[in-house]
Amino acid sequence: MKILVVGANGQIGKHLVSFIQDSDSLEAKAMIRKQEQASFFENLGAETAVVDLEGDIESIAKAAEGVDAVVFTAGSGGHTGADKTVMVDLDGAVKTIEAAKLAGVKRFVMVSSFDTTRKAIQEASSSFAPYVVAKHYADEWLKRADLEYTIIHPGLLTNDKGTGQITAAAEVGRNEVPREDVASVIVASLENEKTAGKESQVVTGTTLIKDAVQSV
């Protein structure tokens, strides 16, 4: 199975491409914004596609040609304003969903925010609310897109080394989770057809990732 990783140069994305390339059944195509980012992925043996997520749908669709699944793990980052949040976390996600449809790709995995409910929007601080709104509507667009989707809602992301163990369910208590483990959850979701049409919150825990993903 060939996977287009959108946001491959991000912290989760880099872990994900590495894990995919180590898999016997998966191979990665890394979608990046700048050519100078390509060497990391080429050294892993991964194909690359240089595409600006703020560009047009057709460019993203071209990158998605010939792949079996798309993973959206792009983000505007914590140091940008609401304008970039809208352009990347919302519009970029929606364009990627439409590009997948245009390219005939049915499988789509979305890395979202921990809680994207209406209640979470109302309770968010004024600075964080635009991000939650963007993720909320991106998730809703995906669920209505007639794709085989999986939505992953990770807890507070850390750069700690992955433990290989998580807690995953429709609702879990707030906690941290290493980015490395989130990447492993994505791989396990891609390898498990039963995750299609499901979404779950994911935090660090005591259950092996494959078992936790299987039980969602």
Automatic annotation (TrEMBL):
Entry-linked Pfam families: NAD_binding_10
InterPro entries: NAD(P)-bd_dom (IPR016040), NAD(P)-bd_dom_sf (IPR036291)
NAD(P)-binding domain boundaries: 7-192
CDD domains (alphabetical): SDR_a5 (cd05243)
Recorded superkingdom: Bacteria
Gene3D superfamilies, sorted: NAD(P)-binding Rossmann-like Domain (3.40.50.720)
Protein name: Sugar epimerase
